[in-house]
Amino acid sequence: MRHDHLITSKQLSRADVETVLDRAAEIDADPDAVADRHTNTLLGLLFFEPSTRTKMSFETAMKRLGGDIVDMGSIESSSVKKGETLADTVRVIEGYADALVLRHPKQGAATMASEFVDVPLLNAGDGAGHHPTQTMLDLYTIRENAGLDDLTIGIMGDLKYGRTVHSLAHALTNFDTRQHFISPESLRLPREVVYDLHQADENAAIREHDSLEDVLPSLDVLYVTRIQRERFPDEQEYQKVAGEYQIDAETLEAASDDLTIMHPLPRVDEIDPEIDDTEHAAYFEQAHNGVPVRMALLDLLLSDERGGEDDE
Amino acid sequence: MRHDHLITSKQLSRADVETVLDRAAEIDADPDAVADRHTNTLLGLLFFEPSTRTKMSFETAMKRLGGDIVDMGSIESSSVKKGETLADTVRVIEGYADALVLRHPKQGAATMASEFVDVPLLNAGDGAGHHPTQTMLDLYTIRENAGLDDLTIGIMGDLKYGRTVHSLAHALTNFDTRQHFISPESLRLPREVVYDLHQADENAAIREHDSLEDVLPSLDVLYVTRIQRERFPDEQEYQKVAGEYQIDAETLEAASDDLTIMHPLPRVDEIDPEIDDTEHAAYFEQAHNGVPVRMALLDLLLSDERGGEDDE
Amino acid sequence: MRHDHLITSKQLSRADVETVLDRAAEIDADPDAVADRHTNTLLGLLFFEPSTRTKMSFETAMKRLGGDIVDMGSIESSSVKKGETLADTVRVIEGYADALVLRHPKQGAATMASEFVDVPLLNAGDGAGHHPTQTMLDLYTIRENAGLDDLTIGIMGDLKYGRTVHSLAHALTNFDTRQHFISPESLRLPREVVYDLHQADENAAIREHDSLEDVLPSLDVLYVTRIQRERFPDEQEYQKVAGEYQIDAETLEAASDDLTIMHPLPRVDEIDPEIDDTEHAAYFEQAHNGVPVRMALLDLLLSDERGGEDDE
């Protein structure tokens, strides 16, 4: 991998993705081997939007590599409230840290910020834009459970607003996959995303469905996302739609025994807790995979940096 | 000590308590000896309610053992706001940490959460339920200052709502103690707590008093708690009651020279600052004892874990 | 340096300042040499007011010395809300940490707090009072860029309310400097500060100006501060005043090629971003200097402590 920053999973070739996943697998198999690999390294956390698992998982990853973090804290207690620009904030904080993680509500924020800093910057979500480390842990989980080639995956729920879904779908065009998108009419994939997938892979095997029923038996992986109440003007409408896209034991009677169920979490009612203890459930494992995958990404970017540092 | 989780001090036998206090005393005497004992260990902090000293003291304890923490942060910035269940939150976060500390406003939360995780979970307060690490540091402070056997202790203030008090009183039934409970009528120990104490020790020497006056000369330890303004419908009523249960130099004229005064802090007006520099005052020492005691608990639970880890 | 606490830069002699700046320069030149100098050391952070860069920079400094922090967090989640006094809070937290950093909205808070603790306490800002570590990094930046003797400095903007400015101006009286203060009439230096500067150095070369124009060509350093909107009753009045004290490329045509421009940040409109890439701009370097300077201060105070620790 030869990148200074990680802004979008689109910047990564299939070979890059495999480098990251292979490194993550190595680390996962023997975390003690890297426990002191990045001592005296500080990762700066700039979260301009709330986050639990992404932030904790980056923090854990850096600490499991022997390093530590410096956290900007909530924007309520920061200079941002005094009118400081993002460009200024990142330029100040890069003086404290060896790499930066940025989450920001505005699409394009990570790209812009990366132009002002000399240390590696990782995008942890920029509004409706990208969230590449989530995509990498999704790919890792799929590879571990079902393999990334000759894969039939269903992606279900809120396909309209979910940057996680768009990013994953795009990354999967690097592999030999059949993608089924299952959602209510009002939450279908945006047309530009579909267009984009075909641009990335002109033979992309993409289908859209209103219902899980037809497609379920053929799936290796079912990726479920949360349908957000606030998308609907009307509570009744929400209940109707949300109810149709819930998974429980009965739903799974028609599924393959090998079906892997994923979810980026947090879930609300999309997956019945009775599924949690079955072999299908991979969503907690998926959340936990955030650690080795982010360790791999940090390790690769920080090691690049060491080898090829330019003057600052 | 053979426990996977620490939920309540009731789960600990007298021998267990002594194991913890002995370990804490060893650590207190020579903290450098354990400064690298749990390197590469991460403690997950899940505080669903505000806390300063409990949280900082756990953080300090883990770091003084060579480890580090990952903090969920305030619930305002977490997935809890999106409707995630506690069971899901702890299952995600156990993937980041080697042990968890949980504070939660609902009684029973720690027990429930512990059923979903494979790493050791320490209860740092579950509503009106338990707060066993506070009890352990109270016991440690009593033992250091007055001994735990042949002890006469007065517990004064808000005895109705204070989980700290209930938990301490229960733990003391393991030892040869005489317990005097001093409070206004409206803040007496709940009848079920008194019943519980007699169940734990049928010979429990327990007395209740309206006033400190009669009992003060006989006390080895006086444990003072804060009477909360918000318990009273009427400011005047509060002032009258609070005023009667304040300690100052004049109050202490009738006390033994060896009397030890404790308080879980924060205090407001219960103890006059003029007492702070006397030999009686043990409340800051008590707060500081949170560190060696929590170091001992973490050390024992994490070492157990290492020896007897089951598959996860 | 022989001080237990760092409360104000006024307590430091010229020799003390030079000791700190020399140590900072050594650390800056070879940070790896001190990367394990204060392992097993915990710095307690007590910020009763919001801060980004001061707090992160202290955190970075302690971690770059091999130590770690324990953070009280925001006062919303602390015992302060329950009515605890500052004296009690610092006495509890000194039990967790080897040194304390305090920021507090009330002038005099650091002095008061320091009387209650045995570990070194560093003032990170006490209301309109002092902020000595900011002054030290300002002095360090001036010395690196222009030297501290035979210096002509302009200090511009909000001179009335800025504790940063008052503290810096006072510290500069230790050196052979000519100080020009440039501000609108309504934001001039308070008369007592001017008096104070003359008390500190009866030959102090101090002039006040309404406009930058006359004085700019003679300056080695121009220190710009933010004019706060909230100081003005009227938006129009603010716009007029703020507009007059903005720096852009055109302004600088009259300046020396060697002029160094500083700003404590965050800036809003005081300095046009087109200046950022010129040789004049030293404000990001200045922010970054917070790390080696605070490392030097912590190292000196913690090393003192080790040598001359009294019983606690």
TrEMBL record, chains A, B, C:
It comes from the Archaea. The keyword NAD does not apply. Residues 150-300 form the Aspartate/ornithine carbamoyltransferase Asp/Orn-binding domain. Keywords: Pyrimidine biosynthesis, Transferase. Carbamoyl phosphate binds at residues 53-54, 103, 131, 134, 265-266. SUPFAM superfamilies: Aspartate/ornithine carbamoyltransferase. Residues 5-144 form the Aspartate/ornithine carbamoyltransferase carbamoyl-P binding domain. L-aspartate binds at residues 82, 163, 226. Heterooligomer of catalytic and regulatory chains. This is Aspartate carbamoyltransferase. The lineage of its organism: Archaea, Methanobacteriati, Methanobacteriota, Stenosarchaea group, Halobacteria. The gene is pyrB.
